[in-house]
Amino acid sequence: MNNKYHFNRRNLIEKIESALSKKDSGKSLKQNLLPILKNFIDDNNANIKELFMKEKNGFYSGELRSKAIDAVILSTYDVINTHAFPIANPTKADKLSVIAVGGYGRGNLAPGSDIDILILTPYKITPRIEQVVESLLYILWDLKLKVGYAIRSLEDNISKAKSDNTICTALLDARLISGDQDLWINFNSAFKLEILSKFKEKYFYEKIKERDIRHKKMGDSRYLLEPNIKENKGGLRDLNTIRWIISFLYQSNNSKDYLSLGIMTNKEASFYNKAEKYFMTLRSMMHYYSKNNSDRLTFDLQLSIADKMGYKSHSGSTPIERLMKHYYLFAKEVGYLTKSVLENIETNNFKTDKSFLKKLVFNIKKNKNGVFEFYGNSIHLAKTEKNIEPLDIFRAYDFSAKYDLNLSNDLINIIKSNIRKVDTLRTSKKANAFFLNVLTNINNSEKVLRSMSEIGALGRFIPDFQRVVARVQHDMYHTYTVDEHTINAIGILRKIDNGELKDKFDLATEVIKKIVSKNVLYVALFLHDIAKGRGGDHSVLGGEVAKNLCPRFGLNADETETVVWLVENHLLMSHVAFKRDLQDPNTIIDLKKRIQSAELLRLLYVLTVADITAVGPEIWNSWKDNLLKIVYNETLMEINGGGNVKSRTVLEDKAKNKLRNSLSEWSNQEFENHIKRFFPYYWTNINFEVHKHHAKLIREADSKGLKIKIDIENLDDQGVTEISIYTQDHLGLFARTCAGLALAGTSVQDARIVTTKDGMTVNTFLIRSATTFSLTEDKNRLSALVDTIRKTISEERDPKVLIKEFKNIQIPSRKDSFIIEPRVLIDNLSSRTHTLIEINSKDKIGLLHTLASELFLMGLHISTARISTYGVRVVDVFYIKNMTGGKITEKDKTDVIKSRLMKAIHEHKDANSKILEKI
Predict the structure, then answer these.
(1) Which of 5, 455, 795, 893 is deepest in the core (most CB within 10 A)?
(2) C-alpha angle 214-219-225 in degrees, rounded to nearest 5
(3) Rounded distance, CA 50 to CA 64, Å?
(4) Under 8 Å between Cβ of 431 and 461
(5) pLDDT digit string, tens, across residues 766-784
(6) DSSP per residue over 691-755, as a string?
């Protein structure tokens, strides 16, 4: 070790003893000690960071950091024990051991890691031990060290290790720093005798269960776009889990021993060390460059980390894409390592349940003529077989899907060693038939596809798919890589198909039953994003890929044409539902002309539902659900020739009757007065829950004579807050409402405008806090939110003043690292009665107000607004009329509108930063 980074504790002790011998009598022992320890920590932290930035070895720098902390704790304890609370002849009860546990016990600390210590005592805590421990902890805390601690007797320690798996795991890494060695030896003996020798099987299966729960909590995917590199599937914690289990069962913590114990192959042990070093290096870099020692590799952090770790643009890939692809490859291989090691340990230590033997014998007999054997819930290559033929690779996956069996670790390794042979199967009719069987299997398609992808078989078989493997979608909207999003979408489609998601997707579950060609639907969904990242319109480019692949998969000409159309138009229905005014008859008529057939409509609807839901866990909500249902039902009526007044009247009556049945306390006259307020579109284009909500909101406002009634509801399952505002309609109301929401520190995710025949309006917004602060957790904040909106709407504040305020408001955000060029489109063809203004821009608090205010100041009336937020990008569509109620068709006027809106966006974007104070 370089002397510069060697911790000479003798030198530190000499400085401490020198300071104490000359100590200022007016200062306490702690006051004399702290400056020396602080200088020692600061100097070594600086040296370690310098070395890390030079060598990029997080494992080595973590060891150095741990040794430095050892020196501080050991020296501090010695000083306290000797100088602060000396005792000539300590009894056994006055002795203690200072023990490092957890990551610190392993002797490896990332820059932001907690320093966990255990104070071990022989019996109960004595007054002297309490004084020593208190002094030690306060000095460490005063040094700004993140110290976590526990004080337990030897007996209590063993007892808690038996009942608490987390404590038991922390003690596996226990390491003596200072104190009584005999007590430490006694603890080790008791831990081995009472814990390690008695609970092997219990610990093994509890640790696997704990891992599975953690995976599910963290998103259950290795391919999240902003992964937690410590806790996510395939991350550092999975490597730790392997080591903990081996340590518990074999009392070994050395990867060299893993070979002699037969737990890992030489290649696996080598990868284990490589992966541990990689994750420690990445984590250390993240801690150095994040504000809160983050273990989550967020988009903004990816920018700085990619640069600091030396990633460069290469072969069309950006530094961020290369960083993340590197991470995903490690996460994938950690998955294989975990599966292999745990399967090996389980086979060697815990026998198969006897009740399963009958099934084992049955399956072996059933497949005695094949090259595979089925046992242990896995598919194995028969012992008589030396290698595997290419077609049998896909036959294995067909069996996996058909019988819901995993591929054994040995079989996976054989396939991986023969992976290049998959290239020869691309034109094989049988192999393509096997693939289609897997893709359309309604029991476990996504599970088998994911296995094929992770091994590399899917990318080899379909090179176009390989191009989107680990493809990062750097937009804060998507949660997963392109390949993982696609496989997730297939999984959602499968569950819709077999009825698992009937409660969530009631219409889709019914519609899919009427689809003639399920193969078309599954193939189209599999290919819908296949051309992402190629530099053009991925829908159009994807259609070209589909033309080539569909015949190979065994689809006929008609089926191929349908798949191509679906891939090219897979965004069509969501575009109409989320960006167009569904009250406008032209919207549905134009869509009907594009789709033309009921079968295409059914296919597109189910595909759209699966695609949107697979984007991320919080993307699907009741608003999207309702809008897509409206588009489907209205278009189906048009296609079937039922798009007329009579059909809509039936739907209106049905909606009114449903609402009437839910308002049993209302008189007939009161209900009649209520429904007369609304235009026909209200009953066909808005769902029952909203009808019911509005009825109660309006009734309460009218009964109390309120000019403004504001209602707030937290939608926890969707991660948003719904705010409904009932008031008199007037020019500029929408802009003022947006101003109030922005001034209250919220970001608008969606908006719905409902006007009534008597001049009132119910505007409903889905909003999120601009910070991580929950809008409904604090009553004072909630009250301030309502008060801000009320004052803004009631014109207590001048619009010009508001605009000036917004030019100076900018919330610092992770979104600041993204660059999106704004665009303004003006459309006079999509609507018979309105001019459409579509604005694509980077999302920012107050942007919606800025745009709405600019339209207001130009004398334009907003009839409807459709707000769509896609991570950092927002698409705002306004349906507007001029002062006389007509469209804006003159080119000079549309040019002025576009120019002023672009100017407003740029002024908003370039405004001086100012932190919005909490209201």
Answers:
(1) 455
(2) 130
(3) 12
(4) yes
(5) 887 755 455 555 566 677 7
(6) HHHHHHHHHHHHHHT-SEEEEEEEEGGGTEEEEEEEEE--TTHHHHHHHHHHHTTEEEEEEEEEE
